[in-house]
Design brief:
- This protein is an alpha/beta fold and 301 residues long.
- 27% of the residues lie in helices and 24% in strands.
- The strands form 7 sheets. The protein has a 4-stranded mixed beta sheet. A 4-stranded parallel beta sheet has the order 11-14-17-20, with helices on one face. The chain has a 3-stranded parallel beta sheet with strand order 12-15-18.
Length: 301
């Protein structure tokens, strides 16, 4: 990212990208969040200082996804039940995807249920490996995959649901004898299967939800997709947006039904806009309160 700001604090439509991940987890009933942090740890802690359901776990050296879970082990103790594992730089994750993941995990009683995506151009994502019956048997990272495995279109998107007790029983057995010299969380799938535990794969993640952020170009692309999602939510709830391409709406804004948002309008911050209003054209509202049946033109709130 070429930045002094921790990546997960970079804003996507005015909110740190990590906020979207936290919100998706809370929406499906997660009441305890463990967040593994390293670079910029104090800035991240300070940003979420008021969020009491978050436990911060420091990973002083980035040694892979498996190691990130290993450092959480003291906080998990003898934890039993369902453990979701997500990437903090994937703000496009949706609560509905997590609900589907949890539903399959419970129905199949899996040791691990992995969400995957089918991609026409899978690039450097890890490939999901299935047996001749279609059952998922593991994941191979791109750098460790064979040329034949590179042709697989189903990819791992770093979104898992584990049986916590079973994961904790094998997590310390991970080895780093791979192309990156890292401890891969995906290696636990083969370890769990070797113990006779069932695995499940859920290929339901839309390719556009898979985008993570590693540079400013990807940040802009993810922000564009997030803005489309925000506007779609308002339109389906009864708000008219005349020109979505010239409109920008903060994810924290509330807009009443039968309100019209006219072109080149920005609804910024925690705006509260009533019903049957007309906002714009060429309006920038910031943390404004607009009562029902109001017309706002060329105004700064």
């Amino acid at each position: 990212m070429k930045t002094a700001l921790p990546k997960v604090l970079h804003p996507v439509c005015n909110q740190p990208m990590l906020t979207y991940v936290f919100d998706a987890c809370r929406e499906v009933g997660c009441d305890r969040l463990l967040c593994v942090i390293g670079f910029g740890a104090e800035k991240i802690r300070a940003t979420y200082a008021d969020q009491k359901d978050v436990t911060w776990v420091e990973q002083t050296q980035p040694r892979g996804t498996g190691h990130a879970v290993q450092v959480c082990k003291p906080c998990l103790g003898a934890e039993d039940g369902e453990l979701l594992v997500l990437a903090g730089d994937g703000p496009l994750v949706q609560a509905e995807t997590l609900r589907q993941l949890l539903a399959v995990h419970r129905r199949r009683r899996s040791a691990c249920t992995l969400a995957s995506s089918i991609m026409a151009n899978p690039g450097s994502f890890g490939r999901v490996i299935r047996d001749e019956t279609g059952e998922m048997i593991g994941v191979v990272e791109y750098l460790d995959a064979t040329e034949a495995q590179h042709q697989i279109k189903e990819v791992n998107v770093s979104l898992y649901c584990f049986d916590a007790a079973r994961l904790l029983a094998v997590i310390d057995d991970l080895r780093n004898d791979n192309a990156k010299g890292e401890y891969y969380l995906t290696d636990t799938l083969g370890m769990l299967r070797a113990r006779g535990y069932p695995l499940a794969g859920v290929p339901t993640v839309p390719p556009e939800d898979v985008l993570s952020i590693n540079d400013r170009v990807q940040l802009a692309e993810v922000s564009r997709l997030m803005q489309q999602r925000i506007q779609r939510r308002h339109m389906l709830a009864g708000v008219t947006i005349e020109d979505p391409s010239s409109t920008w709406i903060d994810p924290r804004a509330a807009i009443g039904t039968d309100t019209t948002i006219r072109p080149t309008t920005v609804v910024d911050g925690r705006c509260r806009i009533g019903r049957r209003c007309v906002i714009g054209p060429m309006v920038h509202l910031r943390d404004a309160v607009v009562k029902d049946d109001q017309i706002v033109e060329h105004s700064h709130g």
